[in-house]
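Hi X.,

You mentioned you wanted examples for the new student's onboarding notes, showing what a folding record looks like when two proteins sit in one file. Here is a clean example. The first protein comes first, with its sequence line followed by its structure tokens.
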Amino acid sequence: MPEVGVEGADALPIKDDRLWRAPLVLGDFVDELLWPRLLRIPELTFRPGRIGLAFVGLLCILLIGELPALSGIEGSPIARGAELNLDAARALGASALSLDPQRILASAEALFVGAPGALWSEFGLWLAPVGIGMLVVWAIFGGAVCRSAICEDAQSVTPTWPESLAFSLPRWSSLALATIAPLLLVGFLLGVAALIGGLLAVPGLNIVGAVLFGLALVLAVLAALSLVCYLLGAIMLMPALACEGTDSFDAGQRVFHYVLHRPGAMVRDLGIVIALGLVTVGVTWLIAEGGIGLAEACAAWIGGGTASAVASGEAAGGIDGVATRIASFWSGALRLGVGAVALSFVWTGGSVLYLVMRARCDGQDPSEIWMPTMIEGTLAPIIEAQRDETPPSGSAQGPTEPEEA
């Protein structure tokens, strides 16, 4: 049998009737999987820079939530909103299990209409500055954490926190709009559908309303589909902008495309992220609460009941009251740190999930992200664009000095 090879002493002959293949190993299968990248999220979450950014962002959000207290309004929109939405979400889940359409519609109305209405009745015009302030803070610090996590996961480069903020600060409006634009779209679609439905109650125009009711159904279906896509992909909206260096419209379009293109993979990967988040934040919370409990027990062991009351925040009046507030400050700071871990996980998890879904749907390597040396929204280097815009030699470039004789 003839052998075909390269001449030379070190040439290895290659059989012409078969092709040699390396044996398959487990790594060949694991390397092709994308979901194991999600397992890095807890590790990326605990980077000090991201925890610090999340801590400052959460603190600013809580301080903004206390603004209504300046006018004598008791309570915080954050705590009240969380309470109302949690109760409405529980009712919606119970009605969904009952498979009763009327109960499901009533629970959905309580969640999306009743809860905001109750907040408005309690806090009034304060909701506008509080909501806008929280959204701006969320965009700035969330965008910074997302950019930091994407750079490390994609290219093993960890920006400092000033570099991360330098990315998000000029883009705060786009980051904020990317967060709420899908909800604004849902509200617009439902508003138009409601106007069409309102024609059914007007004598003489109810015929027009009945004719247009099909359009109202289409708009309602689109609103429901957009809401589902938002619930599944909201965690990836800011990471999309931080990864691509694009605008809010393109970020939303990308995320909705990934959700609709691979819904099964989206649900599975999001479930993995949620499970990792519950474990990560849960363990962090247990460690923090255990540390607080141990500190209080140590204080009671040495100082008795008085020290225990001061450490646990139960003492009041006089010097003991001042000491209680100081001790409560440190306990509150530690609990706030747990919240910072949760926020860091949400932003970091959304960033890694976006890279995974982009690679799965578009086939784009996770390492390909926008960098400051590229044109915004593309992977084209700025140097190449400037070279294309440079006028060729010999073209008119303005007056020149006359040559000396």
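Then the second protein repeats the pattern, sequence line and then tokens:
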Amino acid sequence: MAGAVVESSETALRRATVITGLGLLVQLGSSLHWTPITFVLSAAFGLPLVLVGAGLFLRTVLRVMKDKGAL
């Protein structure tokens, strides 16, 4: 019997923080020596990681608000 995996809010927030932090580190590292290649790395890897992390954070916050009856 397959059951749904329920992730705790703390774990979900931690995962969102790590993904966003990795994206910001990629962008920061790219900005230290700005060349066309580092710009592409920043845009192709850093920005999507930040956006995914922000999306995960928003999803977790909305789920917690729904569970607490705030929505």
